[in-house]
Amino acid sequence: NIELGQSRQRFEASVDTSSPALWIPSSKCYTSLTCFKKNIYKRTADYEPDNDESPLEVNIGYGDPGNLVTGLVGYETLRVGTSRTLQVYGTHFMEATSIPAGDFYYRPADGVFGLGFTSEHLKIAPPFYTMLDRGLLDYSIFSYSIAGKHGFLYLGGFDEGRIDVRSLQYHSLTDDPKRWIINVQSVSLMEFNNTLTELCKSWCNVMIDTATAFIAAPADALRAIASSNSMQYKGEMMQIPCENIKNLVQIKIYIDRQMTILNGNDYVIQVGSECALTFVESPDGYWIFGNTFMNKWYTIFDVGSRMIGFAEPLLSQA
């Protein structure tokens, strides 16, 4: 949760490592249905503008122009409750005046707390970088873990009490300046006859994204997953009878020396009596590891060293 302004307007913000901006729906959002479902930000008498009313836009759909959030520059005191409450005076954010009626319409969050890399094209300073510039954080690191339906964000380091420190391994980012992308050695299916079907060979690029619920993969990989599970991929989420979860093949992911095993119950979502695989087609043909993968790890994002670390969560803290 975050709070904005001296009146401490409270919002639930989704942690998003694919976006650098903090944005919240504005009371000036008149035409987007999404805004009517969310808590909205209202400027109050104590609002102190920085005289910048220029428009902003942030993409929440990996390059799809139909997924642009647009708005105005906002300027308020930000309070973030993580391991401790951080108070950041004069924080820039975006008052969203138009939000597309897509996936975000159904999310419980009001807005987004962006933790992607900043760029010279962004007109506002992301809160994380503002905190670093003002000496509010000990390290240029943040970490994220998932327990059930909730995510836990730690700014300025990581919580050693939540992880098996001996299991922690770091992996360097690629040269992509904007996204948290690492090289993954392999992604493969363990067939029932003990043969491996490779979905990703010889180090493929994978984006680690806290805002993606599932795993996004190229269409060829989805067809292979479907075939190995006696299904067909038809461009939509693959549904299965819930009683067949135990029959799904195992998926193995190698990142350097770290192995992640996804059993059937790890990559299936159940809604009522319906079950579906948590794999979707990537919008740009590359891999995105979202919560389906991150459920297995405590993830550390090192901004200064441009690395991502994965550690096994302690069972008592998972």
Task: Provide the succession of SSEs.
Answer: EEEEEEEEHEEEEEEEEHEEEEEEEHEE
Q: What proportion of the residues form beta strands (DSSP E)?
A: 35-45%
Going by CATH, the homologous superfamily of the largest domain would be Acid Proteases
**Which word captures the global form?**
globular
What CATH architecture of the largest domain do you see? Beta Barrel
Question: What proportion of the residues is helical, as a percent range?
Answer: under 10%
Write the layout of secondary structure elements.
Layout: E1 2-4, E2 9-11, E3 13-16, E4 22-25, E5 55-59, E6 68-81, E7 85-98, E8 111-114, H1 127-133, E9 141-147, E10 150-155, E11 169-172, E12 181-184, E13 186-190, E14 196-200, E15 204-208, E16 215-217, H2 219-228, E17 239-240, E18 250-255, E19 258-262, E20 268-271, E21 274-277, E22 279-281, E23 287-289, H3 291-294, E24 298-302, E25 307-311
Parallel strand pairs: 3-8, 4-7, 15-23, 16-22
Antiparallel strand pairs: 1-2, 1-6, 4-8, 5-6, 6-7, 9-10, 9-24, 11-25, 12-15, 13-14, 13-18, 16-23, 17-21, 18-19, 20-21, 24-25
